[in-house]
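Why does residue order matter? Because the sequence determines the fold. Keep that principle in mind as you read this record.
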Amino acid sequence: MRSTDGLLGIGFMRTVFDSLGAGVFVTDTEGALTASNPRAQELLGRPQEQMLGQDMHDLLHRGPDGGTLPRAECGLLAVLDSGRPAEGSEELFLRGDGSLVPVIWAATPLRCEGRERGAVVVFHDFSLHRDAAEQTAAYLAALEGLTARLTMVAEVSTVLISTLETPEMLNRLAGLLVPDMGDWAAIDVRTPGQTGEMRRVAVRTPGDRGSTEELTGPLPPLPESTRSAVVQALRGAEPVVLDAAGLAERPDSPLAFAHRELFDRLGGTCAVVVPLHTRRQVFGALTVARVAPGSSFTDAEVFVLADIARRAGLVMEAAELFEQQRHVAETMQRQLLTPLPQVDHLTLAARYRPAESAAEIGGDWYDSFLLGDGVLTMVIGDVVGHDLKAAAHMAEVRNMLRALAWDRTEPPSLIMRRLDEAMTHTSDAPMATCVFARIEGAEGGPWELHWVNAGHPPPLLVTADGDTRFLEAGHGPLLGLSSALHMGLGWPDARAELPPRSTLLLYTDGLVESRTRDIEAGLATLRRHAGALARLDVEDFLDELLARIDPSGDDVALLVLRTPQAGAQDEEAPPQHAHSPAAADRGAPGSRIEDSPVRDTSEPV
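Structure:
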């Protein structure tokens, strides 16, 4: 029975030996091969009969150069000497066809009945593991490179949206590309409004070593045809890659010579020229160069640069549209804010400061005109919204008010009621606030203010001595809701005397209210500054008031009236400031559009 069990056990173990997925061979105590399994024969490309009796080290073990290793350096033979297990990786075994296979192995001494019989060696083809490791390393390197590119694109995107000043944006963009994408970068753009005119707006080197400013400035015009890389990029809207051969070509146009000057001054063995473009037009070209011998750009790098240039082109197009819209808005605002009349020594002045928005225009307006009976009016108003649509609605409401009021001698409250009904039934203008006032009095005064207020901040009256008070009376609901018609609400008429040399200020809420300041605090600030400025003439009064309050965010309209001294009807009317745009452009003094919330308001637009 035991003999049968032993035979079955030997057969089982032989099956295991032959079925192992790893190569196995056995040596005797001298290192000669005594057995091998099928997997070993497959990995080594040698049948068993060719290996039996051969010295394992001499037959199989090779060094990195393919030569035979000294026996003293063989870790496999060391197992026979030490009697202890050992293992190794990336050893080379010689296959039957003369090729080398890297292996990972483990060897253990073979003992039988207390005697050393040799060693058992188990090994795997390590090339599979090495390939997997190399693929993993390559994947990690590619992922690291992609992360770096994505980080750069994110930084570029931040730069592109950080300012609407195109030259500043392009200069910062070029700086971001150096040295990560190249040793220097330059940007050439077409000059707006001039066909074919070019200008270099940015040249950046690592750390901006040396002066590159002299390389910027006007460039020769864009030629009709040339082999120049920058012209090809501008004409074809496709990236152009320059190698050493391309850089060695002789320039064939003045613009090509100007482009070559960059390489003469800054060096370069290869470069990429990518267009700054959108689907509609090409705005310029970005050149990124490397100077090290043998340098080149990968397809992925060219793609990244082309994508960055495309993003820059989109921002340049947005900036161009912004400028066009701002010009339209400014022109529209100039037409809407009419010249101010001058009557009986009453001095008027006005300011309009646009909102910090793309349209640079909003629903605020001021107005002043003579009625059919010769009475002077003052109007300040605000239509809901801060864009060109709001400005159009503002113009509609302003013109309706003029049409309804100019031939009427009725009280302001009735004019306001008629305006509310007209807005509700004949206009799509949204809600609006408004102060409508008549300046009444005999020639030379005394003068009286007769007004109504439709949901607007109250007028401010400042005496010649600097005393101030808000005219709170006459307050009624907003316009455009037909409140008076359906709810029985109205706009009560109010009257107030205007003392000699007093200042009446009408303003919109952008002067006294912002995200960081509530209207009560803003009204208190306005009152304090206006009182301190009471002795200035009206032009300086407005300029200094805006400078001190420095409103931001919303658009602001201001309209101010200064009454004359008592008995001044025979005096000559005070001269107007020569720098007033109204005086310069229309022959009527006192009104001005401010072109920036932070610009010196004494400078004309």
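Residues 569-589, 595-605 have pLDDT under 50 and may be disordered.
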